[in-house]
Amino acid sequence: MAGDGEPISEAEALEQLRQKDDQSRQYYAAWWLGRMRSRHPEAVPLLLEALSQRQPRDAGAGVEHNAVARNAARALGKIADERAVPELLAVLDDADDGLREAAARALGELGATAAVPILTRRLASGPDVAGANRSDSPRLQEPCEAMLEALGTIGVAEPDVLTVIKLFTSHGRPLVRSAACRALLQLTGETAWADELLLLLQHPQLQVRRAALMDLGALGWRPALDPIRRTFAENSLKLIALRGLVEHGAGSEADSDDEAVLMAMDALL
Amino acid sequence: MTAGSGDSQRAADRIRAFEQAGSAEELVVATRRLIACDDPLATVPHLVRVLGFNNPGAAVAAVDGLIALGPAAVGPLLANLDAHNYGARAWAVRALAGIGDTRGLDVLEDALATDVGPSVRRAAARGLGALRLETLPEEERELLRERCLGALESGRTDGEWVVRYAVAVGFEGLALPLLPAHPHSDRAEANLAHLLDPEREATLVVRLRAGVALKRLNAR
Known about the structure:
Largest sheet of chain A: none
Oligomer: heterodimer
CATH topology of the largest domain in chain B: Serine Threonine Protein Phosphatase 5, Tetratricopeptide repeat
Distance between the termini of chain A: 37 Å
CATH class of the largest domain in chain B: Mainly Alpha
Largest interface: A-B, 18 and 19 residues
């Protein structure tokens, strides 16, 4: 299929996003602009136009539902231009949950406080409704993980927001619990929520341990150093998590605390 | 005590238990037990075979065991390098990097320069800074170190941060045993200065590690 990974220039990417005949080229171009964090003045307007494109899933061609729009949302998050916020907010109420997921993550990256009331409203029905399994796919009614992560990243620690997030700390899926605990730790600084994440580092499923690793790394939670070192997971992931720990607290030079983390990283190489 | 019993320390019994391991879990346990027996050298060929089994838990245990056995494991590792089994080759590179025997240098150079897996390139970079040169004649040491420096210098611009991090660790390991005035030490420090510079190195954790390396070299 065309547009699969060949190197292109910024001008070509913009051109391929502008044309509408070949959606796989648009899909690739949107990804490329986000990956390169394009600062070209046409990038954001073209991505916003792509965000409004809707198309059915084409399983035969390996194309997801609304593929171009989803990639446009992801790219807008990476480029992090404020102009994208109103359109991304509107997409949070789109019928396609995959598109809501991409928009939630993008708004998190943008730190868009205007997204908080909408995210809170969509999650307010809790694990039994918003967090219920869909009948037609393994996904949940709402993209809970992405929405919870966005609430944690955006950083509005108001009581009604915290109340909604806390509902999901008892969700049946460990990855959702992990996202909720991570957000609560970010918003409240209460270490009890980190304990929950540390417990998940010992979960029997590798996938859950990996998610907890990434969450603790993204939080820069230093007391997690030893539990991260000991958990059973690939060294590659532990290294990413430990990088998060170091980079969170560090200045331009490593102090003795930073050095302890660096030595733990050396041992994983 | 019966042959193959779980408590026997005898290598032959443990090898038999290893051959009979049915599940992935059993293989991990049997591999760990191979290493802690009365004749670990007898287990080397079996540990090398484990690297090709596509069982990461067992492979990790085998790599640890082979590293602990040191130079005695290098011959069998090199003789069994399998160009067609990527997984096995990657684990072998890790074992060779950990052992630090100069016979593994060709493999480490090649892995850092060409391997598609960042985890293999990062192990090779670490290994290139940790070759055991101290027993060799000075002239040979200089030549081998020259090769390690060249390989690490190329690895300094690797696209993956974790490989550049390992390259910083490699430069430190290579230069620490040298006198500060040694030209190879100067060269390692110049490369570390490059990895410390925010204009030329985008990843904070790499810069921090390069800073620690330079601090340690200055404290010699």
